[in-house]
Specification:
Blueprint lengths: L7 H11 L13 E3 L2 E3 L2 E7 L2 E7 L3 E4 L2 E6 L2 E6 L2 E8 L2 E6 L1 E10 L2 E8 L2 E7 L4 E12 L2 E14 L5 E6 L5 E6 L3 H5 L2 H13 L8
Antiparallel strand pairs: 1-2, 3-4, 3-16, 4-5, 5-6, 6-7, 7-8, 8-9, 9-10, 10-11, 11-12, 12-13, 13-14, 14-15, 15-16
């Protein structure tokens, strides 16, 4: 996995400046050479316990095992967790469908960003500050006695690592799991605030399940 992060405190400061993720960091750029040759995107990732969900992001699309999303002139279209996605993306608002209805407001308040509304017909709320990222979202489906049902994940990421990753815990349908969010700063140079919010929520909604869930 390609990883390129700013220092933790830079990430916090930039969240207040541009709204969400990270400051630019020396050496972080578009593409570059990887072990298998030139790269065209940057990986973002969510780790719960030993399990990972990863997407590769470019200025025009997001792709990974959980789905493929394409940016098209203020819209995001594609598939996520087997559901069709079609969203109108604005700096302070997301509307459309991601399986179920999406209607989200993005509030830029002093010292924090708040994301609140409905994602896939279920309530979602996140609050992001330089020090913490907390929120709950209903994601994909898991199985209980052979019957699929949607699961909701609660995140409390209250530590900034030296490489810029946010760490803490999450609970989906079982025990708390150590959790790590990797969202390289280059992504913020490519995408608008609304697009970053969509990508972040898509990652959280595609949380990997673990043996305790």
């Amino acid at each position: 996995m390609h990883r390129c992060f700013g220092r933790g405190r830079s990430l916090g400061r930039a969240l207040l400046v541009s709204g969400l993720v990270a400051a630019t960091a020396a050496g972080c750029g578009h593409g570059g050479e990887g072990a298998s040759g030139p790269r065209t995107g940057i990986d973002i990732a969510l780790k719960r316990g030993p399990a990972w969900t990863t997407f590769n992001v470019t200025p025009s699309r997001v792709i990974g095992p959980a789905g493929t999303l394409n940016f098209r002139k203020g819209e995001l279209v594609g598939f996520l967790e087997g559901h069709a996605v079609k969203l109108e993306v604005k700096p302070d608002e997301l509307t459309g469908t991601a399986g179920g209805r999406v209607a989200l407001d993005i509030y830029d308040e002093p010292g924090k960003i708040e994301i609140s509304g409905v994602w896939n017909d279920a309530r979602v709320h996140f609050e992001i500050t330089p020090e913490t990222l907390r929120g709950t979202i209903t994601g994909g489906t898991t199985s209980m006695m052979g019957t699929p049902y949607p699961f909701s994940c609660q995140y409390v990421l209250d530590k900034l690592e030296s490489d810029g990753a946010r760490t803490g815990t999450s609970i989906c349908s079982g025990m708390p799991e150590p959790t790590r969010l990797e969202f390289p700063p280059t992504v913020e140079k490519w995408l608008s605030r609304g697009e970053i919010v969509v990508v972040l929520l898509a990652l959280f909604a595609s949380a990997p399940m673990t043996s305790t869930d």
